[in-house]
Amino acid sequence: MSTDGVPQRTGDNLDPWYANYAERASGLSASEVRALFAVASRPEVVSLAGGMPFVSALPQELIQDAMQRVMVENGPTALQYGGGQGIPELRAQILEVMALEGIKASVDDIVTTTGSQQALDLVTKLFIDPGDVILAEAPSYVGAIGVFRSYQANVVHVAMDDDGLIPDALRATIARLRGEGRRIKFLYTIPNFHNPAGVTLSAERRPEIIEICRENEILILEDNPYGLLHFDEPVPNALRSLDPEGVIYLGSFSKTLAPGFRVGWALAPHAIREKLILAAESAILSPSSFSQMVVSEYLATADWRAQIDRFRGVYRERKDAMIEALSEHLPQLSWTNPNGGFYVWVTLPDMLDSKQMLPRAVRELVAYTPGTAFFADGRGRHAMRLSFCYPTPEAIRTGVRRLATVVNGELDLLDTFAGTGRLQLPAAPDYGSTPPSDLR
Ligand SMILES: Cc1ncc(COP(=O)(O)O)c(C=O)c1O
Question: Are 357 and 263 part of one and the same domain?
Answer without folding.
Answer: no
